[in-house]
Amino acid sequence: MAGRPSNASRGLGPLESKVMDAVWAATDPVSIREVVDVLNERRAEPLAYTTVMTVMNRLTTKNVLRRHGARRKYVYEATAADAAGLAVRDVLRTYGDAAVAHFLDEARADPDVLRRLRGLLEGTHETR
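Given the sequence above, the corresponding structure tokens read:
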């Protein structure tokens, strides 16, 4: 979407972004093989299984993915619903209450943001 930062600008590299898009598009936890198959559907040169495995293991270390199961039977799921969720979690983890205070200051200064925030709090949210 226009005006939105890419996943790469949110701390994910290009291949990590593609992996996460595949994970987020799935309705259930996914195996490495399933992600490889999805990614290779759109590529002229297929990615190696081990390349995707390495990326998914790094994303697990970064706490972007969560792994379940036993060796060779792992499935992965995202630790946040989307890239925005990852970004918010990282900002809160890094800056804590200061980030919340700055967010509220920004919301108070912009009536449109304040209206949307109130809608979110009341459960009648509209997102952009």
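Helices lie at 14-25, 32-41, 49-61, 83-95, 97-109, 111-122. Try to locate this feature in the token string yourself.
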